[in-house]
């Protein structure tokens, strides 16, 4: 009797995928809530099944081989195909069940939450919506790798695997307290003018920090922060305490400006002027009626008005 090929183990593919995504077997094991030996053994068995080496060790980390890139493409195609199947079956049965995952950069959670709660969930009460705050880089990565359905990011990196549904211009401004010397200047303020003063900045993975890096590079300068954080609230508190200046969009600091606690100053820099808020989805794939409605709900938010 000839043997039957039942296909590649889903569990092995998942362990392999997480290991490549995170760069180490231990990190993949932590995410999958298993022992590292389990992940290592499953990947070894996957390599034996496929007859090729998938990972190479570099110290404590691992890097994918050329063959691994082909397996990664297979993972994405397989999971996308399965999601399309379930979507079509659900539509055929007339069901409105399932799960949608929304990811967003900091500063948009409250507005997105309101739109989902008041506009979307009433129409699709059986849909489980997950809303998670991550960096702009993670927004794009998670959508491209089928870990999320839709995302909103500030100054998101470009990726051919995602499609931009809507954008809103949101220039980066200098944020200071009302009587700061740069606020009182009549001439245009540049990034070089900020150098003598302490600054507080977002961490590297966030789009706001990346666009500042690009602006610094264009002007051949480097900002050296006295505080680095992943929280806009922490940045604003640091400025309110008169410890440092910071950078963000006018929208992100509108409440504090309205209360006369902080002020924004335009920076004469074309890179910072070009900053945008973006609503992004996967470039390919079949969208369910629920996802299409969620896309419309988020597109219609005042954020993109």
From TrEMBL:
SUPFAM superfamilies: Periplasmic binding protein-like II, Winged helix' DNA-binding domain. InterPro entries: HTH-type_LysR_regulators (IPR050950), LysR_HTH_N (IPR000847), LysR_subst-bd (IPR005119), WH-like_DNA-bd_sf (IPR036388), WH_DNA-bd_sf (IPR036390). Residues 8-65 form the HTH lysR-type domain. PROSITE patterns: HTH_LYSR (PS50931). One of its GO terms (cellular component) is cytosol. GO terms for molecular function: DNA binding; DNA-binding transcription factor activity. Keywords: DNA-binding, Transcription, Transcription regulation. Pfam families: HTH_1 (PF00126), LysR_substrate (PF03466). PANTHER family: HTH-TYPE TRANSCRIPTIONAL REGULATOR YBHD, NITROGEN ASSIMILATION TRANSCRIPTIONAL ACTIVATOR-RELATED. Belongs to the LysR transcriptional regulatory family. This is HTH-type transcriptional regulator CynR. It comes from Ralstonia wenshanensis. The lineage of its organism: Bacteria, Pseudomonadati, Pseudomonadota, Betaproteobacteria, Burkholderiales.
